[in-house]
Specification:
Low-confidence stretches: none
Strand content: 25-35%
Number of strands: 11
Structural class: mainly beta
Number of helices: 0
Oligomer: single chain
Order of helices and strands: EEEEEEEEEEE
Number of domains: 1
């Protein structure tokens, strides 16, 4: 499970049956509390008021007034820890949505990441990033 704090830190948690119980405050290293498998400090360099989205081995997340970023996952860990792709700067922290054509010959290749851009006094703009963000 992926969780991103309001400060932009990303945590990958173990969802093994029986391991997720109650909150355990971190007294020392983060990897020993709350079954944190990996912690990525400052994964998003901005305040986060949205949730991440997952599709085909990648996590998509965005901080306020920042870029939408893609973090690739391998064996349940973010690898590399830095984003593998990101968009131009957007102006709102929106929860990204994922859509794909399940009837396509290669459904994964048809994936689209959707997010919003909102500027004061202007209509919101819906952006679509095909095949999950290109550099």
């Amino acid at each position: 499970m992926v969780v991103i704090s309001k400060l932009g830190d990303m945590y990958l948690l173990s969802r093994v049956t029986g391991e997720m119980r109650h909150y355990n405050p971190c007294l020392s290293a983060r990897s020993f509390c709350d079954h944190v498998v990996q912690a990525v400090d400052g994964a998003l360099e901005a305040t986060v008021t949205s949730s991440p989205a997952y599709f085909n081995g990648a996590v998509y997340a965005q901080g306020s007034y920042n870029t939408l970023k893609k973090f690739s996952l391998e064996n349940g860990l973010s690898s590399p820890i830095t984003p593998t792709a990101q968009t131009v700067k957007l102006h709102v922290s929106a929860t990204p949505s994922i859509s794909y054509d399940a009837t396509a010959a290669n459904p994964v290749a048809s994936g689209v990441v959707w997010t919003l851009e909102r500027l004061r006094g202007s209509p919101s703009i819906l952006h679509a990033k095909c095949r999950g963000l290109q550099r």
